[in-house]
From TrEMBL:
<keyword id="KW-0285">Flavoprotein</keyword>
<dbReference type="InterPro" id="IPR016171">
    <property type="entry name" value="Vanillyl_alc_oxidase_C-sub2"/>
</dbReference>
<keyword id="KW-0274">FAD</keyword>
<feature type="domain" description="FAD-binding PCMH-type">
    <location>
        <begin position="41"/>
        <end position="222"/>
    </location>
</feature>
<dbReference type="InterPro" id="IPR016167">
    <property type="entry name" value="FAD-bd_PCMH_sub1"/>
</dbReference>
<dbReference type="GO" id="GO:0071949">
    <property type="term" value="F:FAD binding"/>
</dbReference>
<dbReference type="InterPro" id="IPR016166">
    <property type="entry name" value="FAD-bd_PCMH"/>
</dbReference>
<dbReference type="InterPro" id="IPR036318">
    <property type="entry name" value="FAD-bd_PCMH-like_sf"/>
</dbReference>
<dbReference type="Pfam" id="PF01565">
    <property type="entry name" value="FAD_binding_4"/>
</dbReference>
<dbReference type="GO" id="GO:0003824">
    <property type="term" value="F:catalytic activity"/>
</dbReference>
<dbReference type="InterPro" id="IPR004113">
    <property type="entry name" value="FAD-bd_oxidored_4_C"/>
</dbReference>
<comment type="similarity">
    <text>Belongs to the FAD-binding oxidoreductase/transferase type 4 family.</text>
</comment>
<dbReference type="InterPro" id="IPR016169">
    <property type="entry name" value="FAD-bd_PCMH_sub2"/>
</dbReference>
<dbReference type="InterPro" id="IPR051264">
    <property type="entry name" value="FAD-oxidored/transferase_4"/>
</dbReference>
<dbReference type="InterPro" id="IPR016164">
    <property type="entry name" value="FAD-linked_Oxase-like_C"/>
</dbReference>
<dbReference type="InterPro" id="IPR006094">
    <property type="entry name" value="Oxid_FAD_bind_N"/>
</dbReference>
<protein>
    <submittedName>
        <fullName>Hydroxyacid dehydrogenase</fullName>
    </submittedName>
</protein>
């Protein structure tokens, strides 16, 4: 039976005593926080509370822990796996962290920035830019996702090739534990081997082990110049051959290497005609495209010369069929807009699809793409596959779309079988069914099928120690 609460709930009065009347509401008064951004999950909550400080977060957690009330921490509510949505049971309190939005400190001598969990990623980037530094985490959702959510899922993004994922960008964190204690781990150290690395344990745990309230993040010098190129290929093997040449030719200056399948590119041309495209659309299962970015420490001329040299040699070798090297900021923005917003917008217009956030050894990508695509089309006639991703770390966003002559109700009978086929193929290629979007609710029930039993057992032991009452984000990552 679902729990039912109202504005007269005594817990609400206790929460308001901590955060103020305006910042603690019955769950039904904040419906926008109860549904994930893909409209896949809609839950219920006893209350929604918006603390302003870490101490208020700790007081709220102590109150709720004392009554064994489940807690769902939420940032920008941009999860693609239902990771920040309460369950339908309705007894949880949503702890919305967007009011924790202060940038506490920027230490230029140490190239570090300390900021709270509710800071938007775009605002963190801007703060670094104003300090003449670079914070390199870059995501399509950067205008709405928060630093806390990025830490909770260990987000990757388009510049992970050079700078690493969120874990690699983090020096220290502040965490409110499941019993309401505050762990101040905001040490801005590059080396600290004094015991177990608790920081890395909480990062990527999706709010199931503790609630991250602040972080100290690494900053980098702003590059002297950035150059991009959009390339066309006849086969995925040629893409990876060019990637190998790019690593050797550009070294650490290679910032991003994004890949887009021909089917995905053609879908953008059909569903999003207003999107500017570097090349006319040519449908073909073997057609592939890549978006390459160079961040140069010397000059724009040096970056352009390096890009032209490596790509020119690849064209002569027959690896690259065609190339567009933008000369203006507007042209550069257009090709990145295609990658960061165009692909998702086109798929949204096409209809609901089964999104898979997977990672593979880079060498296994071609065989996975061909064998899994063939298996899907044989098992589900008419089904379509749209693939893009980060070639640098083997992270593919592998989206499976229904046949065009069907509606979204196709998934009522086919989604589980489609996901099982894809996930088994990932496992057969020594990959992971979860790369950067988190396990959330979407994959929690299947995770034990794709992890060794000992790994699951060790994860459960950690969960039991850090959250013995099981109140932190129930139903996510590990099921009870």
């Amino acid at each position: 039976m679902c729990a039912s609460f109202s504005g007269s709930d005594p817990l609400l009065a206790d929460l308001r005593a901590i955060v103020g009347d305006a910042y603690a509401l019955p769950g039904e008064d904040a419906p926008e926080l109860l549904t994930d951004q893909l409209n896949r999950y809609t839950g219920r909550a006893r209350a929604v509370v918006r603390p302003r400080t870490t101490e208020e977060v700790a007081q709220v957690v102590r109150l709720l822990a004392g009554q064994r009330v489940p807690i769902v921490a939420q940032g920008g509510n941009t999860s693609l796996t239902g990771g920040a949505t309460p369950t339908a049971e309705g007894s949880a309190v949503v702890l919305a962290l967007t009011r924790l939005d202060r940038i506490r400190d920027i230490d230029l001598e140490n190239d570090a920035m300390t900021l709270e969990a509710g800071v938007l990623l775009a605002n963190a980037q801007e703060a670094a830019r104003e300090a003449q530094r670079l914070f390199p985490l870059r995501l399509p959702s950067e205008g709405s996702c928060t630093i806390g959510g990025n830490l909770a899922t260990n987000a990757g993004g388009t510049q992970v090739l050079r700078y690493g994922n969120t874990r690699a960008l983090t020096l220290g964190i502040e965490v409110v534990t499941a019993d309401g204690e505050i762990w101040d781990g905001l040490r801005a150290l590059r080396k600290d081997n004094a015991g177990y690395d608790l920081r890395d344990l909480f990062i990527g745990s999706e709010g199931t082990l503790g609630i991250i309230t602040a972080a100290t993040l690494r900053l980098f010098p702003q590059p002297a110049a950035q150059r991009s190129a959009f390339l066309k290929f006849a086969a995925i093997e040629d893409v990876l051959a060019l990637f190998d040449r790019a690593k050797k030719g550009f070294g650490s200056a290679l910032t991003a290497f994004e890949i887009i399948s021909g089917a995905t590119y053609e879908l953008v041309a059909r569903r999003l005609p207003e999107q500017r495209l570097p090349f006319p659309a040519e449908f073909g299962e073997e057609r592939w495209y890549a978006l390459v970015e160079l961040s140069d420490e010397e000059s724009d001329d040096h970056a352009r010369d390096a890009l032209e040299r490596v790509i020119g040699e690849a064209i002569e070798a027959g690896l690259v069929q065609d190339a567009v090297l933008p000369e203006s900021l507007a042209q550069t923005r257009a090709i990145w807009e295609l990658r960061e917003t165009g692909l998702g917008s086109a798929q949204k217009r096409d209809g609901w699809n089964a999104k898979h956030d997977i990672s593979l050894p880079i060498s296994r990508i071609p065989h996975f793409i061909r064998s899994t695509g063939d298996a899907l089309r044989q098992a589900f006639p008419g089904i379509r596959v749209f693939t893009h991703g980060h070639a640098g770390d083997g992270n593919l966003h592998y989206q499976v779309a229904r046949p065009e002559d069907t509606g979204d109700d196709y998934w009522l009978t086919h989604e589980t079988a489609v996901r099982t086929l894809v996930h088994r193929a990932v496992l057969a290629h020594n990959g992971s069914i979860c790369a950067e979007h988190g396990v959330g609710a979407l994959k929690a029930h299947t995770l034990p099928d794709y992890k060794p039993p000992l790994e699951i057992a060790l994860m459960r032991r950690i969960k039991d120690v850090l959250d013995p009452q099981g109140i932190l984000n129930p139903g996510k990552v590990l099921l009870a």
